Structures are given as C-alpha cells and as structure tokens.
Amino acid sequence: MTPTLLMDQPPNTASATxxxxxxxxxxARGVPLIxxxxxxxxxxxxxxxxxxxEAAEPAGLLADGPPALxxxxxxxxxxxxxxxxARNFSVDANFYPLGSxxxxxxxxxxxxxxxxxxxxxxxxxxxxxxxxxxxxxxYQLRTWLAQIAGLDEVCLQPCAGAHGEYAxxxxxxxxxxxxxxxxxxQRRTVLAPDTAHGTNPASCAMCGANVVKVPSKxxxxxxxxxxxxxxxxxAALMITNPNTAGLFDGTITQIADxxxxxxALLYLDGANMNAIAGVxxxxxxxxxxxxxxxxxxxxxxxGCGGPGAGPIAVRSFLSPYLPVPQVVCxxxxxxxxxxxxxxxxxxxxxxxxxxxGQFGVLLRCWAYIxxxxxxxxxxxxxxxxxxxxxxxxxxxxxxxxxYFDPQNKRFCAHEFITVPKRLLAKGVTLVDIAKRLIxxxxxxxxxHWPVHDCxxxxxxxxxxxxxxxxxxxxxxxxxxxxxxxxxALKAAPRNAPVSRLxxxxxxxxxxxxxxx
Length: 516
Description:
The protein is of the alpha/beta class. It folds into two domains: about 110-370, Type I PLP-dependent aspartate aminotransferase-like (Major domain) (Aspartate Aminotransferase, domain 2), CATH 3.40.640; about 395-505, Aspartate Aminotransferase, domain 1. The chain has 14 helices and 14 strands. It has a seven-stranded mixed β-sheet, with helices on both faces. Strands 12-14-13 form a three-stranded antiparallel β-sheet, with helices on one face. A two-stranded antiparallel ribbon has the order 4-5. Helix 4 (about 130-150) runs parallel beside helix 10. The chain starts with about 70 loop residues before the first helix and ends in an 8-residue tail after the last helix. Residues about 1-30 have low confidence and may be disordered.
C-alpha cells in the first residue's frame, strides 16, 4: 500500500498560539483528541478474575479519586494510536536522509530472531552449560566483527558508541600504564581532528585525558600540523574515517605511520563503517583499536537515544586489557566446541557493563551479518557510497558541495554536505528549506553540522533510485521556489499536522496540561 504523504492532506491554518479552553484542538485532520473521545464508563482493558485473596489497601495510600484519564473502548484506543503513528515521520513511511545517523531500513526478520523465546528467556547468570546457543552466537559475532575490522579480538561489552570510545580509551590508558606493556604513563594526551565526532573529546574528558584538536585542510587531516602535535605525551589519535565531512582520508596510512613512529596508537571511531564494511579493513590501514556502532551499521534502528551496542576491536597487544567477562570458545574432550564466560584477565580494565552491550541489538547484528555474508556487506557499502555520490552530483548546481568535486576526481563516501550559500543569500534560512521538505513527506537532513549552514545528507544503501530521484526533484523545486518568492518558504510547513511553531515561545511558555 502506498503511504499517504503529508502534502496530500488539507492545509493546516491553525495558529501556533494556545487555543481557548472551549475550542476543539483536533488538528488538521479533524480527528478529535483522545480526551474529546472519552465516554464515562468505557473500558479498553479486561482484567482476569482475581486469583488471590483480596486484601484491604493500606490506609493513606489511596488517591482522593481516579486519575483524570480518558475513558475509551478497545477499538477507539487502537484507532487513537494508529492515528498518532500516522502523524509521525518514520523510516517505514518516509525518506529519512539524516547524515551521520544512518536511519536505514532494518529487516523485520531480525526482529523476529531477537524475539525468540530461547533468547529472550535466557539469563546472563545462567550456567554456561545451559546457555551454549546464546554464547555460541556471541562468540561467532565477535569473531566476525574482528574479521571485518581486520583486528585480533573484539569485546562485546560496551553498550553504545560513546561507551565504546570510553572503554577503548581505558584500554589504551591501561596499556601505557603497564610496565610490561606500553610503559609510558606520561602518555595522557589524545589528539582529535576537527572533523571528528563530538563524542570523541567528551569521552577523552571522561577518561581524564587531555584533548588536543588537529586542524584539517580541505576537509582532511593536516599532516604537517599532526606531525607538529605528536610527542612523547601522545597516547592516541581518535579519527573518524570516513569523516563527518563525508570524506575518506586517503592519507590514513601516513597518519598511522606518524603516530606509530612516535610510539602512539591510532583509534578509529567506527560510526561510519557502513561506507567501508567489507571493502576496507581498518586494521589493514593502521588502526590499533576501534569501536563499532552495531546499531547503525548492522541493522537495528538508530535514534532517540538507544538501545545500542558499541563493541571494541583491538590488536593482540591490547587484548589483555579488554573488559571482562569475555565469551571464549574451548575444545571439549570429545573434540567439540564449548563456550563460557572468561573472567581471568589480571590486566583487564574490569567491567564497563554487566555482561555485553544490549543483547537484542547484538543478536540483530549477528542475523544481519549472517544474512548478508561478505559479498552482501561489500555491496551494502558500495551502494551507500554510490547513492550519496549520485545525489551530490544531481544537486551540486543548486546546492554547493564544498568537498565534492567530480571534475577533479574528488568524491564523497556514504554522505555529503552541502552549504547552499547562493540560496541562503536570497533571504531564506536553512530551517526554511528544512520545513519545506516536511511538506513533501521528506524528513530534513542533519543541519549545521559539521559546519554552519550545511545539510549533511545520507541516503543509505536501502533507498531505491526512484526515491533518490524524487528527493532531487523536491530539492530542485524548493530552489525554484526560493528564486521566485523566498518569503513564501517562511510559512512552511503548510501541509503538516502542525504548522511552523514559535520555538522560543514554546520553550519559554510550554503548554504542559490538556485543557478541554
């Protein structure tokens, strides 16, 4: 069934100012609010008969009266939530080209796998012998991730990308503090390019490390500046490659050499692995430690703060410092494989979480990799990169792309940024363009990051050519509207359930209570 786009709905002429208490606030589509549908005595829940002796409520715990909740039947309740869901933007119904956030389609079969009773009912403290299937899955996943990374060992314990950064920095710190390891406790400075993800310096601060910014030149790390910053107090460089400008830094092996020659390590923020998974292994271009955002690269929907999983991958000399417990595989007396949790790593940094990252996220990751295989992962990366370059090439005449220049053989990775200076000079803002996209059922791209007045656009590998072409058509149409009447865009969105809000007024004078 073709989803109904917001642009097909009647215009919303409602004001952003509060309505009188006696006025209906049903909205553009004419559906009453749930409170306006309330009928005294209606019920949406049938509770089973009481199967335990009834007990009197303790004195003082009863409310003066029932909560002021709407009273509706089951069908009205279902219709209410269905209506609310239809008013939301979602990756199931809309194009979601958020740069860096990777709002991709995620196979529903992975949701089914994660809901299997054999997985949902297992307890992390269950005896190893009673959880062999679960442990086998976790062990196989960490070996697969190690192969994708081109590194020696993976720990699944961190529960998010920034948590993976934190755990990896703790491992680096433990290595340099170990007399039998790096034996350089003075190495407490971490370098971060100005194109790095914002969580990188925050993670350094959490670990007590000094953070030094490395300038970029034309979107890439300035090698001469890097050479001047590396010294015997440098522990590591945290780099995102491809970076947040959507560029793969081809000097990455030179960057690795600069660090290694000075006795420092190279850390990779793996948030953009969906551009190179199956194509290029970080270990092969000099990375010593990295984290994966499995919830971005390998299936699980990303956004709204979680859930997530941020496994870290390391070279063998860093393995002794990995968090415990670590799932390991051993050969039993019959020659078969047995899996268990290992806690005996004296140099480990200890736990950063109870056992693993979000288990359901890791299971979805396993299912995704198992379904794709090496060729499938490679095709995903190729398609993501091709889609981004296709959009950049189609839009660059109207929406300037400072780092994308095909005539000089400079291409982007899985995402690109546009800074539409010529359009903005006509009197519109980036927000005006973003709000107009909503009228066409397209979620606005990431704005003002990594540079001011930019869109960061990431089509992902899952959108069809028809969807990409429609996005181009809409973006060019908006450019034409700006040329004809830039002031008209300031009223957008015109066809959404909620019109342009007074965001300052909403923040200063929020309406927190329904008044029917």
